[in-house]
Amino acid sequence: MNPPRDPAWLLAIQEIPGYNLKPLYEQAGFQVAVEHSVRRALARLRTLTPQVIVADFSKRHFHDRVSNLESLLAARNRFAAARILILYDPAHAADLALLQTRCSVDATLPLPAKETTLMALLAQWAAAAK
Hints:
By secondary structure, this protein is α/β, with parallel strands linked by helices.
């Protein structure tokens, strides 16, 4: 008989203030690490191998990038097995579409995220991670 596995890890990158989805992530069965910048999330990825990464899409004015998430998604080979969910402000949907032409993501949800939709997606990913 195999011993039970530790819960899968979810890395949440929450740059947009005003909401807290950590209880939902935990309810879906994940251990949760939260960072408030992509730079800190990249540092965390040196020691953590998450099965899921949930990140805010926040539009910044860069001369060569659509978003700060491009740095994270460009480093995806270090965590290739992780599923990536991007939460976004519907006002930035066109910019997110541009990002998706440059980088691969597994799912996107507009803010405010519907709890039932988010939980269904996370439950599916948690089951696949076991």
